[in-house]
Amino acid sequence: MAQVKVFYDEAAKTLTVWFGNPADEYVSEETGEEVILMKDRNGKVIGFEKLNFTIANSKQIQVAFETVVA
Predict the structure, then answer these.
(1) What are the extents of the domains in the chain?
(2) What CA–CA distance (Å, rounded) separates 33 from 63?
(3) 3-state secondary structure of 54
(4) Alpha-carbon Rg for the chain in angstroms
(5) What is the spatial distance between Cα 60 and Cα 26, in angstroms, rounded to a whole number?
(6) How far apart are CA 8 and CA 6, in angstroms?
(7) pLDDT, tens digit, for every residue of 12-65?
(8) C-alpha to C-alpha distance for 25 and 46, rounded to whole angstroms
(9) What integer pLDDT is reported at residue 58 of this predicted model?
(10) In the beta sheet, which residues pair with residue 14?
(11) Are 39 and 29 in contact (CB under 8 A)?
(12) What is the mean pLDDT of residues 8-14?
């Protein structure tokens, strides 16, 4: 079963989502939309970070996932 790790840093205002092993990060690429993609050595995206992310009136994040057959 695949794991997804979600981290919210309130002080830095970032939301980081890993769907691969963070230790495999080789390079990061900024998309220009305040999103940074983390990639492994093969160029596969293994996570992303959203900059300037805030949660209004709540200290909880609800995360829902949907799988799609490619």
Answers:
(1) 1-70
(2) 21
(3) coil
(4) 13
(5) 30
(6) 7
(7) 999 999 999 999 999 999 998 999 999 999 999 999 999 999 887 766 777 787
(8) 7
(9) 65
(10) 9, 51
(11) yes
(12) 92
